[in-house]
Description:
The chain is mainly alpha-helical. It has helices spanning 2-29, 32-39, 43-49, 53-67, 82-93, 95-106, 116-135, 145-161, 163-170, 177-194. Helix 1 (2-29) packs across helix 2 (32-39). The mean pLDDT is 90.
Amino acid sequence: MGKIRDAERTRNKILNAAKEEFFEKGFSGARIESIAKRASINKQLIYHYFKGKEELINATIANFASSVPKENLTLPADPKKIAEFRFKVNNEYLMEFLKFTAWEAVEEIPENSNGVESRKKVLQSYVEDMKAKQQKGLVSKDLDPALITLMMSSLTVYPLLYGKVTEMITGLHPEEQEFQEKWGDFLNLISEKIFSD
């Protein structure tokens, strides 16, 4: 039993160190040596648990996705509240991961080595949620649920991820409380217009 606990503890140390390394440096910039150093273990031990970098990034993102509290992924019943909710969750809980997605946008990453399945599951649940809201008459049938989800993702990620652009346009940095309040109010306002009966 002790060996199992030790193995689990070591695996978790590797995954936590890998999350820091991947999210900070992207897939291409991350190094197994650096992950080992962060985890305070021997590099060969990583290969005992994971075949290579591709398997490690998938496991890291799957582990991260499973660690996000369910309430942070459960969308509000009222579609008018979704954008503000997602913006707050992104800002308060997902910034490190969002930075990784920015690395991903500019890097050559091997196919299926960025936790696609874990991430797709979450994003597709948002699409399904929007479809369910359409069935209940809360969202116009004219609106494509996938495109609404993409729009919401853009509005709730871009200002946070591209802080300099946000600041150049608004005069406020996304970390400032004033920006967060203004953007939350704006998201509510446009959601009212999009989802009005």
